[in-house]
Write a structure and sequence with these properties.
By secondary structure, the chain is α+β, with helices and mostly antiparallel strands. The chain contains 6 helices and 3 strands, in the order ααβββαααα. Helix 3 packs across helix 5.
Length: 137
């Protein structure tokens, strides 16, 4: 992952879109077989993004996970600490359950809205700049 990508204020963009404090990490998600993961630690969100993603994938996965942060934060059990790495993958049954499938669809829809909103910007920096103003009046 390039220094240019790391230099972007991903947490700032996440905070503006989610409406609360978010920490963003570029590391393999704590759950195996995922490109991104969102979970709650006390009063903030943690978003983990795989560093192996290309720029377009990274932006999409980021927006999807921030969608979870905005839509589902108050419904999530708060962990006391950040998750340890290499936790088992979610089961197919869990991922296909109606509740989880609906949450994934909702996060996809919101991510798609944000992705389209910023699509006229050519650079990741530009996309983040535009997205930070999405909820401004």
């Amino acid at each position: 992952m390039s220094d240019r990508i790391k230099a972007i204020d991903w947490a700032g963009t996440a905070r503006c879109l989610a409406g609360h404090r978010c920490k963003v990490y570029f590391r393999e998600p704590s759950r195996k077989n995922l490109d991104g993961l969102h979970y709650r630690v006390n009063n903030h969100s943690v978003i983990e993004l795989s560093p192996r993603l290309n720029e377009r994938e990274l932006m999409w996965v980021f927006l999807h996970e921030v969608g979870h942060a905005r839509l589902h934060f108050n419904r999530l059990k708060a962990h006391q600490n950040e998750l340890a790495p290499n936790r088992p993958a979610y089961s197919t049954e869990y991922l296909q359950s109606p509740k989880i499938a609906a949450r994934e669809t909702d996060a996809d829809r919101l991510a798609n809205t944000w992705f389209k909103f910023a699509s006229y910007q050519d650079t990741l920096e530009g996309k983040h700049s535009v997205l930070r103003s999405y909820y401004d009046d």
